[in-house]
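Lab notebook page, bench 4
Experiment: in silico fold of construct C2
Operator: M.H.
Input chain length: 337 residues
Purpose: comparison with the prior construct
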Amino acid sequence: MIAYVIRRLIAAVLLIFVVSAVTFLIFFGVPRLGGASAEDLASRYVGKTAGEEQIKLAAERLGFTDPLWEQYGRFAKGLVAGADFDTGTEVDHCPAPCFGYSFITQNPVLPDLLDRLPVTVSLAAGAAILWLFGGVATGVLSALKRGSIFDRAAMGVALAGVSLPIFFTGLLALSIFSYTLEWTPPGGTNPVEQDNPWDWAAALILPWITLALLYAAQYARLTRAGMLETMGEDFIRTARAKGLPERRVVVKHGLRSALTPILTIFGLDLGLLLGGAILTETTFSLPGIGQYAVIAITNQDLPKVLGVTLVGATFIILANLIVDLLYAVVDPRVRTA
């Protein structure tokens, strides 16, 4: 078990290194292939009013004229040991992990991401609880009542949940519950700034439900398919022949086997959302990492986009690592994989 964990940890570290290298090349190497010069990148730091001489000096000071591998070396060193940033008037130290400085605000990227992370974590965690329990429970009941009115209605709602985009259901929910009925706070309310847990939950209830509806639909359909396949296996008939209670047969034997693919996609979905629920945060104007990414892309602020990408990739890699470790706990056979 210890050797299995060590192998997975080493693989996770190597994968983060590969992601950082590929991401850096995309944002700083591909523009070179498209004809962008070091001065073009430096112009984002010095502003539109700077002259050619100022832009050239900034490009040299920031190291944009150096070979690409050398620039990545400094970037990787900043992630591990921090980096010094020459503003022209002084040298600022960016502590590790340093994702660089914003082209627009000249502020380090990591503190901005950490300020917005609680909003994204609150959104992802609450929605994950709703869609996991709601989707799995609906899928199990639909499988046990196959062909019934409940099964058809639940799968119809699940199909609608998968088909309708978040920006439609989110705006519809805001129009009805926030602006017409006034049951929930309007969009743009920062849940982290609320004074008590009730106001925090009230600010997130619509985003939770809207986001959970999309994922719960997928989980319900997947759970139903898994349960229908599992409940027809020989070991289920054997368990029933032994006289075990139906609830124990369904939960301990049927559901446990059907949850294996659910565990896989849950880790991936949660890791992806922790990297920024872009559509949900934009629809409800939540100041999280997803909204931060949209603003960075709109302003073509490459260090911010790079930081969001690396944070999202790190969450996904960690989620995969946790899923691998959980597999080792649930199924001993994977420990030798």
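Observations: The longest helix spans residues 109-144. The beta strands are 83-86, 91-94.
Next step: discuss at group meeting.
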